[in-house]
Amino acid sequence: MSLAFDDYGRPYIILRDQGSKKRMKGLEAYKSNILAAKAVANTLSSSLGPKGMDKMLVSPDGDVSVTNDGSIIVEKMEIQHPTAKLLVELSQSQDAEIGDGTTGVVVLAGKLLEQALTLLDKGNHPLKISDGFDRACDVAIKHLETISEEIDIQANEHEALIQAACTALGSKVVSKRKRELGKIAVTAVLDVADLARKDVNLDLIKIQTKTGGSVEDTRLISGILIDKDMSHPQMPKEVKEAKICLLTCPFEPPKPKTKHNINISSAEDYKKLYQQEQQYFVDMVKLVKDSGANIALCQWGFDDEANHLLLQNELPAVRWVSGTDVELIAMATGARIIPRFQEITPEKLGKAGSVKEVQFGTSNERMLVIENCQCTKAVTILIRGGSQMIVDEAKRSIHDAICVIRNLIKDNRIVYGGGSAELACAIQVLQYADEVSSVEQYAIRSFADALEGIPCCLADNCGLNPITSVAQAKSRQLQENNPRIGIDCMELGTTDMKEQRIYETLSSKKQQIQLATQVVKMILKIDDVIAPDDY
Amino acid sequence: MDIVGNVLPQVLKDEATEDKGEMARLQSFVGAIAVADLVKTTLGPKGMDKILKPTGPGQEMTHITVTNDGATILKSMYVENPAAKILIEISKTQDEEVGDGTTTVAVLAGELLREGEKLIQKRIHPQHVIAGWRIARDVALKRLRDISSENDINSQEFHDDLIKIARTTLSSKLITTDRDYFADLCVKAVLRLKGSSNLDYIQIIKLPGGTIRDSYLDDGFILKKQITIGCKRRIENAKILVANTAMDYDKIKIYGTKVKVNSMDKVAEIEAAEKEKMKHKVDKILKYQPTVFVNRQLIYNYPEQLLADSGITVIEHADFEGMERVAAATGAEILSTFDAPERAAQVLGHCDLIEEIMIGEEKMIKFSGCKKNEACTIVLRGASTHILDEVDRSIHDALCVLITTVKNRRVVWGGGNSEMQMAAACEEEAKKVQGKQAFAIEAFARALRQIPTIICDNGGYDSAELIQNFKVELQKGNQTCGLNMTDGTVGNMSELGVKECLRVKEQALMAASEAAELIMRVDDIVKCAPRKRERA
User: Fold this and answer.
1) With an 8 Å Cβ cutoff, are B510 and A386 in contact?
2) Hey, what's the torsion of the CAs at A167, A172, A174, A180, to 10 degrees?
3) Tell me, what CATH number does B77's domain have?
4) How does it assemble (chain A) (predicted)?
């Protein structure tokens, strides 16, 4: 690669290790970037919609995962192309912000890039294209807000929320039980939601997985489930009216952080030290016991002797509880996390209706359930399934559904799915394009085409003829002025998405269009790529 | 390169591959079917075993395994194909969840995919296939539950059921000739648990020597340890103290302690102090007045001698599991501190007789007449360690199935009866369903029917004829018919006494269809570049 040459055709050395670097610029760079990004979008496009397919991903260590979740797919593909990586981030930011629609956003970006490529071929300037996309995006967002509807989330036993959860779950492997799982997700979210503040703390919903059984066996536990058992096999398996002492210090002799040495120089010292050590254990257990606690949960380990003393004092205890679990239990039971034994006081204890050990399968694995917590209701969704892959995928799907419900509680405006919202926006953008007098109108028109690409892709995945079904839906939308006409993916005989009750949140749709446009604009601005040669 | 001829930029890392559409599907079908075909010859009472030979250097790598257990075979295989890995995964889950039917689940998933592949070739969309499978699965599950029967847990019928189930499970294993003997043995062991599902209480001890027939169930508890020299070999009315404490030298656990002395005298003093500390500990133990002392950790000579002098029988180095079992069986508490001798009655375990026995060439300690009589020991004898290992696995399978049955109590007829019934239910359903899903439902029925077919084939019988006769027999309303694998005919299962646990069948059906669905839904396989391993 060379930037400049002298009179004899010899290159000037400008960049470090110039010879080993690769450079692409101008149209070549644009095209290469767009093609790479499109390749990623193409992989994802077959995952879109209720009949979308899954991807099987083999990790560098040979572990297999099967998923339909856009952000997970692009993350696990280990993409190395720099522009394609932008799409990975795009999907992940949608996941972080909204939690759902991670496939859709990448597919939309892909369609936009495809349009941009044609526009570039026609000789449009990239910046004009990106300006046009920007303006079109504004129009689409505005239109989305006008066609959005407010729904009453309380009505009919939260029917609307369940439907929205079903829409999110519809495309996943667990779809045959989407109604049950949707209900579980809705109940879980409502249990922990603060409806007055329209806020949901998702930390209070714990998703625990366990292979075995079937997806149907997935259930909601109104309490916290932790994958631990009692520290001593002979401790009671159930504690009623539990008063929980939550410790982050080990039941072991103290280990001061300052470096020190205790030198034993005489037999007396030795005996004294021994007695002191014994005293430590007795004191520790006594302090816990005296506070009135009847169960101790500890983030660290126990010394054998301490463990036995606990048993002797009829104080069931659990060791090695993970940090996140400790926090969750603290929140739910109102316990204060106690870092030192000296600071245990009765008012710092958390309260729960019961703590008990439950067992699964033949392999003797036990888990602890903490139920009827005093403060906030924390819930756990225990996911079961035939194999690790199914359980993992179910976990991701339920997470998506939970996010959708949370978004609806925050903002109860919805748009209809099945590609209807995109189609309505496309029509609106197209109308707007005719009003624009500058060059941008080509880009705006292309934006509309790209939006239409989403219902096209949906129809394609469902085995319908994409062109006819999109054309039909579009003409019906125009004739009836009804923005709810979409693609009948489930072959239910109606294209009105309100009747099919395919709900999507407005916030998710808005975010999808905005994020996709932003990333496309960014890719269109790159006109020079300098990279090491081995790329 | 795309169609137009543009060279696509490389998106994935070097060595990473991506297969799409047909290629991806073909790859997963081939892999899954290959795995299913591999284990299918082990299915049924006439199934064959496999030899597993580990790869790699080293002494332990030369140890081979001979087995008939699907999960064991699949677990030990290293496969590259991702779909094959999914099959192995469900087999493992089946093993953990119910303990048996590990071959069936892999074979059923493989057969489903084989049928699925044919449907895909007929240009039926995978999603339609899945939709059909889901209908079929629900129908099959419903039929399976309908044909199951339940008996009261304490009744004689239930006891008979258990024996029949154990026989059925064991009939496909190495010990099929002695299955009546072992079935009885397993049922007795499980019934001792009195409904609890803790398999830990049933200990299996394997000792080479003798014949398989010499295996027996000991109602006491056997610890594979020796009584320390110089102690009594037989203790009646034993009071047992089970401990988990350091009896070598009790180091001070306070962090940063270091012994630093400036004269030899001081060393001697500290040594004496140390000794005294141990003596002190022993004294404390003695206050409990036990007659037997079992410790998890090792015991040094000095405390051992002190204890032995006081007439206490010492057992050291009991492993963790063994210790928990001793505690559970004798009702002892596992002690680590010894400051409350007044609780002695509460914490000491009790049993009528402890004695050292010889099984084969090995000395063991037997605890009989324990306080809590739940624990028991199955002593397995056999000509070689390979046989013993396989018998152990078979017994484990049978015990798991029995425990599951005790929990669930519902049973179905064996000999392929349940599969044929489910297949029939699916076929009936297929007639009512509109749309192309019906093909998938029929395919599901065919896959289910493959299980008895493979069992026939493995027995060397004419499967086509047998299965057809079987079908006709069912159609006539003979609900208990099934394959008689000794004669190669369609027989009556209630006369032959072939029963199976419903839970095992249910779990196999659900896990297999879930896995097949999972594989069917895939249209794209991305393999990341393998992690580079640095050679040490």
Assistant:
1) yes
2) -10
3) 1.10.560.10
4) Heterooligomeric complex of about 850 to 900 kDa that forms two stacked rings, 12 to 16 nm in diameter.
Is B336 in contact with A307 (Cβ distance < 8 A)? yes
List, by residue number, the catalytic residues of B: 69, 102-103, 397
Looking at residues B195-199, what average pLDDT do you find? 68
Residue A208 is predicted with a pLDDT of: 86
* Residues of chain A found within 8 Å of residue B10, distances taken between Cβ atoms: 80-81, 535
B349 and B465 housed in the same domain = no
CATH code, domain carrying B387 = 3.30.260.10
| Contact state of A43 with B16 under an 8 Å Cβ cutoff | no
Question: Within 13 A of B381's CA, how many CA atoms are on the CB side?
Answer: 13
Are both B112 and B204 inside the same structural domain?
A: no
Tally the domains of chain B.
3
B89–A312 C-beta distance less than 8 A: no
Q: Does B207 lie in the same domain as B244?
A: no
Does residue B524 sit within a domain?
A: no
Residue A369's nearest CA partner among A380, A360, A384, A361 is A380
Q: Which domains does chain A have, with CATH numbers?
A: 20-150+415-532 (1.10.560.10), 224-255+265-376 (3.50.7.10)
Determine the residue among A362, A393, A461 to mutate to test chain B binding: the one whose Cβ has the most chain B Cβ atoms within 10 Å. A362
Q: Are A424 and A147 in contact (CB under 8 A)?
A: yes
Q: Do A58 and B525 touch (CB under 8 A)?
A: yes
DSSP codes, B380-400: EEESSHHHHHHHHHHHHHHHH
Neighbouring-strand partners of residue B209: B382
Chunked into runs of 10 residues, chain A (535 residues) has average pLDDT values of: 71 70 76 85 86 87 86 86 86 86 90 90 88 92 90 78 85 81 88 81 84 79 83 80 85 73 76 79 83 86 79 83 85 84 83 81 71 80 83 89 88 87 91 88 92 90 86 89 85 81 88 92 84 61
Say what angle helices A420-435 and A440-461 make with each other, to 10 degrees. Answer: 160
B interface mutation test: which of A53, A67, A279, A523 has the most B CBs within 10 A? Answer: A53
In a domain, B76, yes or no: yes
B467 assigned to some structural domain = yes
What range defines the domain where residue B40 resides? 21-150+413-519
Instruction: State ipTM.
Output: 0.77
Q: Looking at the structure, tell me whether residues B347 and B226 fall in a common domain.
A: yes
Q: CB B236: neighbour CB atoms within 10 A?
A: 12
Tokens representing B163 are 């024996």
Work out the angle at residue B189's Cα, subtended by the Cα atoms of residues B188 and B195, and round it to the nearest 5 degrees.
95
Q: Specify the amino acid at residue B140.
A: A
Per CB-CB distance under 8 Å, the chain B contacts of A266 are 261, 266, 269-270
How far away is chain B from the Cα of A516, in angstroms, using its nearest Cα?
A: 19
Quick one: angle between helices A102-121 and A82-97, nearest 10?
A: 140
- String of b and e for A497-510 (b: at least 16 CB within 10 Å)? bbebebbbbbbbbb
B392 and B320 housed in the same domain: no
* Residue whose pair of structure tokens reads 């390979």 in the numeric block: B386
Please give the biggest Cα pair distance in chain A.
Answer: 100
The partner residue sitting opposite A271, judged by closest CB among B273, B511, B526, is B273
- Amino acid found at A120: L
Residues B386 and B337 in one domain: no
B422 and B501 both lie in a single domain: yes
CATH of the domain at B280: 3.50.7.10
Does the distance separating the beta carbons of A362 and B400 come in below 8 Å? yes
Q: Give the global pTM.
A: 0.82
B169 and B88: one domain? Answer: no
Query: Given this model, what pLDDT does residue B1 score?
Result: 43
Per-residue DSSP letter, A335:
P
Q: Which two tokens stand for residue A140?
A: 């689409």
Q: Which residue stretches of A370-505 are H helix?
A: 388-410, 420-435, 440-461, 466-480, 497-500
B-chain residue closest to A313, CA distance: B340
Domain assignment of residue B65, yes or no: yes
